[in-house]
## 1
Amino acid sequence: MYPELDTPALVIDLDAVRANIDEMAEAAARHGVRLRPHIKTHKMPELARMQLDAGAGGITCAKLGEAEVMADAGIDDILLAFPLWGEPKLRRFAALRERARVRVSLDSPEVAAGLGRLGGPPVEVLVEVDTGQHRLGRPPGRPTADLVAEIAAIPGVEVVGLLTLAGHAYHARTATELAETARREGEDLVATAELCARDGIELREISVGSTPTARHAAGVAGVTEIRPGTYIFNDTAMMRLGVATEETAAARVLTTVIGRPIPERAVFDAGTKCLASDGTGTPGWIRAAGLPYVHMDFLNEEHGVALLEAGHHDDLPVGTRAQLIPSHACAAVNNFDLAYGVEGGRVTTELRVAARGAVR
Amino acid sequence: MYPELDTPALVIDLDAVRANIDEMAEAAARHGVRLRPHIKTHKMPELARMQLDAGAGGITCAKLGEAEVMADAGIDDILLAFPLWGEPKLRRFAALRERARVRVSLDSPEVAAGLGRLGGPPVEVLVEVDTGQHRLGRPPGRPTADLVAEIAAIPGVEVVGLLTLAGHAYHARTATELAETARREGEDLVATAELCARDGIELREISVGSTPTARHAAGVAGVTEIRPGTYIFNDTAMMRLGVATEETAAARVLTTVIGRPIPERAVFDAGTKCLASDGTGTPGWIRAAGLPYVHMDFLNEEHGVALLEAGHHDDLPVGTRAQLIPSHACAAVNNFDLAYGVEGGRVTTELRVAARGAVR
């Protein structure tokens, strides 16, 4: 299994990546909405370019540092889905605007006022709405409409739309619950925009949709944009939610068994410093591809400690390789400077995780 | 608060670091054992040098890549506490041995045989023992003594001692339970070494002790070496175990409030990509230094979402800075390429996290 690579290593199945990109692009096209994928999952300009070539209309970044990396690669339509605060970032944002169209999301007049003081053409902003995750934003309806009116009155910014992340969808227990959360995500924003219109503020963007909800939310009348990220790689969290399979899980950590202390235990050379701690303790949060009898017990920083089902206690001798599927692909990828692209079971390219760690 | 730094940023209180280094060095000296600190916490040659200058007798690394970074900085006495497997790593290990004294821990004849085939002077190995964490190693007593005999018979390796990590100590609920775990950690290995001696194999190293247990385990007769790592920075996990305080928590993430969507909620610009997901859900797993009324609710990748106690709903306006203490310092540090050393409340130096991500 990839003998040219030492372990642990991040391998990206580019065949699966292409299929994942196409599937989401088709879902967006079918509903006539813009797909603006979040690049926080892969952090690689090459893959952002593949998404754009397949029909994406711009990209989403969380942090300014990610946006700068993508702009360096020539990407010129970026939604910065994070409130910008402070002079150093505002200076960098002003420079970024010189070479790309950049919109920003925010949820406060304070952040809007900072952007408004930049000068130049008005900064296009989307107001973040709390559709149930309880992170940023006010609830839909009147609380958000009032905030939109307040921000719209600030010189130098133009409120172009509403944005939400239905992060609570990750906790959905059934497909029905997931679909319902997605529908609400879209409908709540559309209804709020109608309220804003009655207040005299016409909003032209309704931006919703994470990987679990995007395919549903895209179908809500009035939604203009979906921003899924994880779909390009998927992970066990997406598998658990029923929106991915082992075959579409494209990012894996190639690892080696370095200890078999007792027959029922195998220890891999990859722990949280490869796979991250996200999802720890959730049953099946780390899976060994093609090895359903391997059950991860716990991770230390450099060890993955797995239990083997009865009947497999002679399997996986020291030196055996396996591919571990992370619980959260975005977090796992952020642990690596370099990934290896594989196609047809062979390593075909090296991919730099160019925006890894770009948290500022 | 550190206006010269943009946020989020990793700040290291070097005054606290010096005190932490001295305190553990004194504990080791008092008991006459070697302190061989694990550098996985800081990953910085400068801090390893400070530990050595304060009396440490060599360092511990997990991965070969970490050891290479430390050897590049001139550190020449290294315990590699991880089984080495595969030709690429064995070649690198052979090169590393040319410039440093390197011991390796392992728990299998397979790994020992690989090392034994290297040639040159015998490779000094420590056999890992499972004192209750159930990761690598066999249980103490006869199972380990038999393994030691098997490995000692392999040409090219010399078994010099026993090693364990009492990782289960992290789950201790009381100081008494912690002390008892530490005592057992030491005594189990000493008793096993006596069994080996009766088998005709004299072992000269008994290597134990993580940060929670090191001060206790150092006092067990027969223990020769302790390997704590986290003590240099500490974290909320160490605070919860009663072996650290907010004052000795030296690694913090400097962050800014970027949203105050409702009076009881403040959102920081640092999430799991700064603080890691380790400890998620444990009460108080992330603490805001000096702000006891701030209770972290959840982290996303780039957001830290906190709830504020009644009476503080007007505090922390957008733009306020705070220092967040991570649950697991080692994991948080691994998210950053650069840290800022602070002394007396001022930034005095930049520290490169030179061995960040060195998982191979």
## 2
Amino acid sequence: MSDKTTIGVGMVGYAFMGRVHSQAWRSVGAFFDLPLTPRMAVLAGRSKERTEAAAAQLGWAGIETDWRELVKRDDVQIVDICTPGDSHAEIAIAALEAGKHVLCEKPLANSVAEAEAMVAAAAAAPGRSMVAFNYRRVPAVALARRYVEEGRIGEVRHVRAAYLQDWIVDPEFPLVWRLQKDKAGAGALGDIGSHIVDAAQFITGQRVVGVSALTETFIKERPLAAESAGLGATGSAARGTVTVDDAALFIGRLSGGGLASFEATRFANGRKNAMRIEINGSLGSLAFDFEAMNELWFSANGGGFERILVTEPDHPYVGAWWPPGHGLGYEHTFTHEIKDFLEAVATGADPTPSFADGLRVQRVLEAVERSAAEGSRYTDVEDR
Amino acid sequence: MSDKTTIGVGMVGYAFMGRVHSQAWRSVGAFFDLPLTPRMAVLAGRSKERTEAAAAQLGWAGIETDWRELVKRDDVQIVDICTPGDSHAEIAIAALEAGKHVLCEKPLANSVAEAEAMVAAAAAAPGRSMVAFNYRRVPAVALARRYVEEGRIGEVRHVRAAYLQDWIVDPEFPLVWRLQKDKAGAGALGDIGSHIVDAAQFITGQRVVGVSALTETFIKERPLAAESAGLGATGSAARGTVTVDDAALFIGRLSGGGLASFEATRFANGRKNAMRIEINGSLGSLAFDFEAMNELWFSANGGGFERILVTEPDHPYVGAWWPPGHGLGYEHTFTHEIKDFLEAVATGADPTPSFADGLRVQRVLEAVERSAAEGSRYTDVEDR
Amino acid sequence: MSDKTTIGVGMVGYAFMGRVHSQAWRSVGAFFDLPLTPRMAVLAGRSKERTEAAAAQLGWAGIETDWRELVKRDDVQIVDICTPGDSHAEIAIAALEAGKHVLCEKPLANSVAEAEAMVAAAAAAPGRSMVAFNYRRVPAVALARRYVEEGRIGEVRHVRAAYLQDWIVDPEFPLVWRLQKDKAGAGALGDIGSHIVDAAQFITGQRVVGVSALTETFIKERPLAAESAGLGATGSAARGTVTVDDAALFIGRLSGGGLASFEATRFANGRKNAMRIEINGSLGSLAFDFEAMNELWFSANGGGFERILVTEPDHPYVGAWWPPGHGLGYEHTFTHEIKDFLEAVATGADPTPSFADGLRVQRVLEAVERSAAEGSRYTDVEDR
Amino acid sequence: MSDKTTIGVGMVGYAFMGRVHSQAWRSVGAFFDLPLTPRMAVLAGRSKERTEAAAAQLGWAGIETDWRELVKRDDVQIVDICTPGDSHAEIAIAALEAGKHVLCEKPLANSVAEAEAMVAAAAAAPGRSMVAFNYRRVPAVALARRYVEEGRIGEVRHVRAAYLQDWIVDPEFPLVWRLQKDKAGAGALGDIGSHIVDAAQFITGQRVVGVSALTETFIKERPLAAESAGLGATGSAARGTVTVDDAALFIGRLSGGGLASFEATRFANGRKNAMRIEINGSLGSLAFDFEAMNELWFSANGGGFERILVTEPDHPYVGAWWPPGHGLGYEHTFTHEIKDFLEAVATGADPTPSFADGLRVQRVLEAVERSAAEGSRYTDVEDR
């Protein structure tokens, strides 16, 4: 616990993602034996008053009202970016150029061009960089990856992934920033579709090499939000145009020869956060649904599916926590992410998912958008 | 139970489908109050010896070794076609022209052209005709249709359908007739994909109007079967080419503006007969999996999914059977189908699914094949 | 299929049990290769008119209005008793004395004394006898038994059995015969508690050796039924006393040293026919719920529970039916029962469950009633 | 966040319970708007070295090696007792007498006499006191309580509770303190049986008024643990006697006239932390299993069971956390407990579960032990 192992963290943004990242920074050291002790040094936000209140509540020692100041501070070695996607590239590149390590929320950026610039900056800079696809750190998802690596399901024939939510089913739900292309980049595709593409590539160890896609915006206009920052804002009389997709469906091919289907939607009435992935291989199968996040289902050689309660000490990340059967929650995926990131920073290893992994997802999303625009034509995913 | 209400049935084929149809003909009268009493008059098959044995076991009074004789018999008013798809059109048209009623196994035919000829023959003939998409008669599926009709889920946003089996995962599984295009017409697409297309169109009351598709044959060559008629035949040294798809994925649009995804595969290790369909609407959602065929899941207005055990007296078809909680099995879908068919024959009403409904499915399958052949391009489904 | 292998069956009663037995007699020969072909010779019931109608509908060749005539007929070799429990002993003993084989519905009798007389009659007579605990013939239950026999779960530590229904939750549900002690013998305890006691003894291969019990009648008076024969009869103004238990709970010890708990109730709102049994052993565990009757859950050595879809050809009874994943229903348990009974009759082997097995269940129920009457005192189950 | 609202906390013990309590003290303020800001002032443990390491890791400002010093400190207003049950009474009474507020782990004590002394001390002292039955703070359990209070299930007919674990199935698992009566008070009965008794009384709002019980110790001797403090210690050659129950089964009556069954065991192979409770009422039913802790199942009026994902903002405690579908874990039950405790301390209200509630559970456990010792005789639970 000596000073020389302490590392200063500065976080930009304190909404949903900022709250859960803070909880992870605050908790990680109590459960994992870390090579570096994070110090929650500074929080950046535009409003002084609100940022101060957030810092007090979330446990940050100081604040900045301009992220440009934050990335320059000497007491900050890690910059944690929890803002909407339109600012990721600018902040991350500045932080990397200032010699900081960077943890950036997903999707990596709002365009392939931005993501490429971020990858280039990461390659040129001394700091470590990581994109926060937190679902990789669900113990059940990490266990699925382990099973595939161990050859337990053989050759992958099928990936069947869906990310189903229902929070904008109501046509009177307001036009929040996540429904605006200039801020969010894309709709369900970017926000949640990116997660299932990353999860599919992570678990299988393969790339999505081509896609055929359909996208749709069911509700074209929505009430303007009094304030566009929160999910829960109430509607008003004036209406604006929804400029992102409400749902995206795509089918595609994997680099290993398998087939994959993906569906991202915010119109799946009754599904709250059903991030689901099923994988069928020549020797076995796996199935996961985040709504039951402590379970992984596994079938070997055509046998019945075993419900593995992923709470055993030898399951990924679980040994640090509670006895078997005492499940983890959503927030712990971030604790695991930050633990892995700190280890990478300490050892100089490349953390995963790297910015390059984030770009790989971005290229799939870009191919989806091109395919959807061009009559669902099968579209190769660029691979450089 | 007087003679005048008896109606003679002739069945062609006595393999899997013939066995289950026989059980339905034999049982239907004990449970439903029928306007006509079916008489299991004659079974047709090519081998005299085998057909006689089958007739004895399955309860048919006589046999024919040529279906052409069967369709001419005076004691046959209903012809039940349980052969592979390549003979459906010829038999059905002959039977209709002979003035018989026709119940024909699915898919209706091996091509759109054949299906069109069958629809034309049905329109011109005095008999009733029906295609045997038996899954419509799963009580839970019929209840799903009822819920949609009653407006309980509002506008349909998403259909998510999959039919998952795993019986040819093993590369040494032999080249049975279902893997040969000339006999089966198509692979997973025609055999099981047709069921989920029909179920989607039935439950939503809408048509699939366009599709974008990928198909794949994972195992290109297989051992020749000593006899290609049965699923369980063992392999041999000589190999032949698999000429049908192992899996078909497609996404598409519904006539009401919703999106749909379909997946038919025989390579979903551990899934035996997972005919699944989920529907998300503006007001509610439904979910079904045939592996738990007595259950329908329903969510109203974003609430939790209710597991409806579809065994109540007021559920479709269920009143004829047992008390609540005493579930039905696969075979009962055929009993229900035949009950409905007999009622249509008695009243002169058009049974559903009609040959036109079967053609509608066929057109979707044909668009899938065209799309898959043309780089997944979005392909309109013909609608005449 | 020659005449000498035909065996005549006479059935007494045509209500719920009679209907499902008829379906089994009618179907069994089409699926199983039987040593004897059953002939549905005669149905007995008190009302000539109703019995004739039932015989016509259910497929019985003739009728009798007095079961005493039925048991004397030369064309009847098997007597199938589907009446309420108060007449089991008299009919069964008469049939056995007349040299018939007897299949008797459960519970074997309404008292231990009657059951003992039946066992004695069975021992003295040339015919085979069997009590119809049909749940033994659920493939999943038979598979559970197989797993225990094979040592897959080791020593049995716990049995946790419940049979939950809800059909008399409504206080206005009428006083049908099943709620009258003189006809039904007992309430939930005898009707459904007997099933779980038999299932527990069958699967474990052990006896329940002692019990401690509580019983309760929640609704003491109910409307008199216009007709007391059917479950669905509507209420009337006059009321009568419920003379059986609404629910019975008991805990006990197994002959092998394990502990067991049992609960039988008709007041489990929302549970329709939840006949559940879980068994925990030193090496593994099993779990079953009839509401999902095609599934058996198995855990080996503390691992996750595998959902075995009991529809594989090598599972008990399943090879005679459909391909994997095409589930069976409630009625098939009777088809299996009758198949096994016919084989026993043909070979002269003792069928199981025998009348002695039925008596063994009766003794447990009797100990439950004694314990409940005596302050739940632990009460040994008689074992002679 | 001014100083005057800060309240000092001292915790005794830093094993499993100490770790999870620490996480709750550390996190609670970031999520709930508290009237008091807890300050993690001091941790007590016997070993100076270990306590210092634990304090550093878990975030406590100082340490004591004698809890007697801790309860005297001026910077401690709340004493949080996380030791085995044999020291609860002594520490809690001393703390209360020193004017502190006390949060005490469950079961309240190892005997009724101790628990009575604690209740008396709590009544006489100015501080608030609470026993840590954390499962009351599972959102799904709290929602179940809300549903019962709102009358949604009507009169309670049945409670069916089980707490199933399997961590001592292996006979070579060592003789840890939880298997020794002098330290743990009881075995499965006290450790996990206490939780389901409390949950049943909490959700129904009724008392268990009498019980009939069986207990068993399957493995009578076990290897002595090198160190008896941890669950994971490895075995050694020398053996000692297990002096607590391995499993306890009991059935009983509720103050409102319903029936209840309870089972607590550590021998349910494959069940890790299956704390289950089902309640059947005259109007509806509820079902919960901690292995899927974010789900509550609800049936209204005999309808299907609805799987309520208890992650909506209007569900108990949930509004403070994440969007719908982003589940919580085991640790959050403690965060909720501490939030409620701090509110009670601030307002002077009596927290629940109070020491009196803990005593009420203790009396049930004591009646269970008496009944088990006396041939399962139905034994009234004392109610003073």
